[in-house]
Amino acid sequence: MVKEKSEEITVKDLQSSILRNDVKPLYYFFGEEDFLIEEMVKLLIEKNIDESLKGFNLDMIDGGSINVREVVAYASAYPMISEKRVLVVRDFNKLIQSENNKEIMLRYLQNPSQTTLLIMIGTKLDNRTTIAKAIKEYGTVVEFKPLYDNQVPAWIQNHARVFEKNISEEATHLLAEYVGNSMREIHTELEKLSIYLGDKLTIEEDDVSSVVGVSKSYNIFALQNAIGQRDISKAVTILEIMMENGENSIGTIAMLTKFFQKLWILKGSSLRSETEMANLFKINKYFVQNFVSAASNYKLTEIENAFNELTLADETLKMSKMDEKLTMTLMIYNIIKNLT
User: Fold this and answer.
1) 119, β-bridge pairs
2) Is 272 strand, coil or helix?
3) Is 181 helix (H, G, I), strand (E, B) or coil?
4) Element of type H or E holding 86
5) What is the pTM of this model?
């Protein structure tokens, strides 16, 4: 057999190759973004096996609960009434823990069936090993990284089309600020929004506030604004209502940390225009004035104190039995009053 060298490629390159039916006998997927791994696995299955033949030509197994010889047998089987069959092995690393299992698996990897797509999902490969070298020799290795913050808005707008919806720029940035960079969470919230909208084609800012946030008046953004204006009464009221509605306190701390990171950057920045600041933070200009106003209300030392209070609250919630509501309230009070 002629050997085919294959380099590690990007997710975008992988998707393009699948869509043009340029597939390899071996795939190795790893990385933090498990939602995107699932999406690429689905696409490989969809493009290579007819729906009616999945029962004959698709096997999905856990590497920690099967014998390596069985895996090789599945991979070596011929497809039925189809050009290809697909074998997905999750937790691949568990399959090859013993030296004997490695040798058995290696023999297959060095001479893989050309009618089977073996998709291995595991941790990052050690490129010094013969297993890794064989996978790279005959297949494709892809790392699935989380989105960077500046990539989130474009991904939201593209993914909204999966649900046959458009999303306004303001709604996009509001959703990105609220959910963060988790593709799975973005997908879930877009699915909720799609159901909420019904026949309406465009997701607007108010829709995101209604469906994703606790409410337009009592969500993380309202809390940020109250803290930014040093309005302790309003901030505590918003916090209490958020907690009553089941808002996750650790998530709130994470969002407030990002908020103060932006204020810290603004304090040391020479940027003047809203466009420059929006580009710096990768946010819509719509939100810039809130950050500018908040930054003017806090000294640099007070922002640094806020980081300390956020860290302390996070550690207290995770490591002690102190009342959650009291912990969060004290955190807000100490940030705004700067008494510590």
Assistant:
1) 27, 88
2) coil
3) coil
4) strand 85-90
5) 0.65
